[in-house]
Design a protein that fits this description.
Layout (H helix, E strand, L loop, with lengths): L1 E5 L2 H9 L6 E3 L2 E3 L5 E4 L5 E3 L2 H4 L20 E3 L4 H13 L2 E5 L4 H13 L4 H5 L2 E2 L7 H8 L3 E2 L4 H31 L12 H16 L5 E10 L5 E7 L17 H11 L3 E14 L7 H12 L3 H14 L21 H11 L4 H6 L34 H15 L6 E12 L2 E12 L25 E13 L6 E2 H9 L8 H6 L12 H10 L3 E4 L2 E4 L1 H9 L2 H4 L2 H14 L5 H19 L23 H6 L2
Parallel strand pairs: 1-4, 1-7, 7-8
Antiparallel strand pairs: 2-3, 3-4, 5-6, 8-9, 10-11, 10-15, 11-14, 12-13, 12-15, 13-14, 16-18, 17-18
Helix pairs in contact: 4-7, 7-20, 7-21, 10-11, 10-14, 10-15, 11-14, 11-17
Length: 636
């Protein structure tokens, strides 16, 4: 009997539907016509054991026990899914072959592998296990995936990477949370001060942004705008470019802080003759933006519809599992396999059918165009989020489901429009010895931008055609006073963008070098829950759309060692976890130094001045993953 183990019931049902013949729905699985079976997990059926499973003494929170480092790791069944684990275990006893049908990502690989290992499956069956990768729950797509089952052992690196991540997060989160919660108690704080290798650097970003805004002192700066006239009486504006001699009067961003200097330029240039010293007009083009990854979709969903990252993920799961209108949503890829291009016409027709208002846009699309999105070298287990060929009118969806589906559909549709073409003009002008620059931009062909309504309303600046050496007249010069402004508070969209582009916040140049474009804080599947968790733990709060750190959040970040609150460490973690998945690093080479660094962090925490926690209002512990409701009650 071949046993297919899916990650969720919806995926299990989709796999079963891809087979013909009469099927029997059993309790927790489906028996196919030929006797093979399809069963499923319900997310993780197993979880890391609580510390007191290793030693009852750990039930009491005590600094002298830290760090807690298991010598032999234990998994235990999750209480609410124990029945399904029993079903899977029973089926595994009679299976002659096992197919891992977890979601096509790191966590999906592990959660099925760990069940197979936990149930003591024979080594020969483990060696011959298959891996079924499904990105689209529609029957035809699942049938195609079933024709391309790979060897599960090819993904051992991915599974080991997820295992290392799980254990490292347990070590880091449990030990540091216990340490700082107990230290907080000494200062009079009665709540749980949870620490995590991802959540804490994210909170650190917010705290430091808030502090930067709080400490910001606005200063005036000055610009000079000249109005120039050609011999044909055509006018345009140009902006003064301060010379090197002006550097003593500028800030680090080159803004002139001296009103007197700027006024001198105004007086010197007003009514003077001018000369074009250089003029360039270049035709440029921009390709369509790539289809969505989950993070990119969450950012746009937040910006356009004020939907939280978690709300966007939940909507995507519904569109994928319930409606089967989009491909696998927890994807970090923005590229598509070349073989998928053959389905382009079918996908476009589905969009046209599902969203009648898009009929005109689909008719104008060119299905023969192949954008840079189709690139096999940038696609691994899963690809970008795109619509499926399934037809279902958006009128049958909820309002938010329809909005997100249309975002995904529009982004896909853009791939079949030409590039946005425009002319860019740059003129350098000398006025009384001072250099001024004028810039213009003219659209030649809208291309894909015709579909991007929000970007299509920007006023264009059109310069007259000029020639080098052409004389002009400066008919007016104006001093423009502006104020320096602080950085903006994070919103859910900008915080998510910061998490995905974390290299911008890494100070160490050597660490920057090892970061890839796809590296970030957390994963596509966890970033939304991390932001949501920080709200629930009352370390952050929303003020309108802005995210502000609470007093407790600020106190925690200020109490922790700097390396725990900056993204550098976790960026290195993610880089190393990626190396493990690629079999370029061994599990032990990652875990051993990490364990030692936790030991050092615990030791250094003993020097903390705990008075900073005095008077803070504590939040109620929420769940074991906050290290957490059960454990917190047992501490002293």
């Amino acid at each position: 009997m071949i046993l297919y183990i899916a990650e969720k019931p919806s995926l299990g049902r989709a796999i079963a539907q891809a087979f013909s013949g009469q099927q029997q729905k059993r309790d927790g699985y489906i028996e196919l016509a030929n006797g093979d079976c399809v069963t499923w997990c319900i997310g993780h059926l197993l979880e890391q054991a609580e510390p007191d499973k290793y030693d009852p003494v750990y039930a009491k929170w005590s600094l002298q026990h830290l760090p807690i480092v298991p010598t032999k790791w234990q998994l235990v069944p999750k209480k609410n899914t124990h029945k399904q684990l029993t079903v899977v275990k029973r089926l595994l006893k009679t299976a002659t072959q096992v197919i891992n049908a977890g979601d096509p990502d790191r966590e999906g690989q592990l959660l099925v592998d760990e069940v197979i290992t936990y149930c003591s499956v024979k080594q020969a069956i483990i060696e011959n296990a298959g891996r079924l990768l499904i990105n689209d729950l529609n029957t035809s797509a699942v049938q195609k995936s079933l024709q391309n089952i790979r060897a599960n052992k090819d993904f051992v690196g991915l599974s080991t990477s997820a295992l290392a991540r799980s254990r490292a997060d347990w070590l880091y989160g449990l030990n540091l949370t216990r340490a700082y919660t107990l230290l907080g108690q000494r200062g009079g704080y009665s709540g749980v001060l949870s620490v995590g290798r991802v959540q804490t650097p994210v909170l650190g970003l917010v705290v430091r942004r808030d502090q930067e805004i709080s400490n910001f002192v606005s200063k005036p700066f000055f610009e000079v705008i000249a109005t120039l006239e050609t011999q044909n009486k055509v006018t345009f504006n140009a902006k003064w470019q301060p010379s090197e001699a002006c550097e003593p009067y500028q800030d680090e961003e080159g803004r002139v802080l001296s009103r007197k200097l700027a006024q001198t330029v105004v007086n010197k240039t007003q009514g003077q003759k001018a000369l074009v010293t250089d003029y360039k007009a270049q035709t440029k083009q921009s390709p369509p933006p790539l289809p969505y990854s989950l993070s990119a979709l969450q950012i746009d969903g937040s910006k356009r519809f004020n939907l939280s990252p978690k709300a966007v993920l939940d909507i995507c799961q519904s569109l994928y599992e319930k409606h089967q209108l989009i491909t696998y949503p927890r994807s970090d890829s923005r590229y598509l396999p070349k073989e998928h291009f053959a389905q382009a016409r079918s996908v476009l027709n589905a969009i046209k059918n599902n969203v009648p208002s898009y009929a005109g846009a689909v008719e104008k699309a060119n299905p023969a165009l192949k954008s840079k999105a189709w690139d096999d070298s940038k696609v691994d287990a899963h690809h970008a989020i795109i619509p499926t060929t399934r037809t279902r009118a958006v009128a049958s969806l909820t309002a938010d489901e329809a909005k997100i589906y249309q975002l995904i559909a529009t982004q896909y549709l853009m791939q079949f429009y030409g590039p946005h073409k425009y002319q860019e003009q740059v003129a350098k002008i000398d006025i009384a010895g001072g250099e001024f620059i004028a810039k213009g931009k003219t659209t030649l062909e809208l291309g894909w931008l015709a579909l991007a309504k929000s970007d299509n309303n920007k006023a264009e600046v059109i310069l007259p055609t000029l020639t080098k050496g052409e004389p002009l007249q400066c008919i007016d010069s104006q001093l423009v006073e502006k104020q320096t402004s602080p950085p903006k508070h994070f919103t859910e969209a900008t915080l998510l963008a910061a998490m995905t582009g974390i290299a911008r916040y890494v100070q160490d140049s050597e660490i920057k070098k090892i970061l890839k474009d796809t590296d970030g804080l957390g994963t596509e599947a966890t970033r939304a829950s991390i932001i949501d968790l920080l709200f629930k733990r009352q370390f952050m709060q929303k003020v309108g759309k802005e995210i502000h750190a609470t007093d407790t959040g600020k106190a925690l970040i200020n109490a922790l060692p700097s390396e725990t609150t900056h993204p550098d460490m976790t960026a290195i973690w993610e880089s190393n976890l990626d190396k493990i998945s690629q079999r370029q690093m061994r599990y032990e080479a990652f875990m051993q130094p990490l364990t030692e660094s936790i030991r050092l962090l615990i030791n250094s925490s003993q020097q903390l001045d705990t008075n900073q926690f005095a008077g803070l209002k504590s939040s109620k512990p929420t769940g074991k993953k906050a290290w957490g409701k059960k454990a917190f009650k047992k501490k002293t």
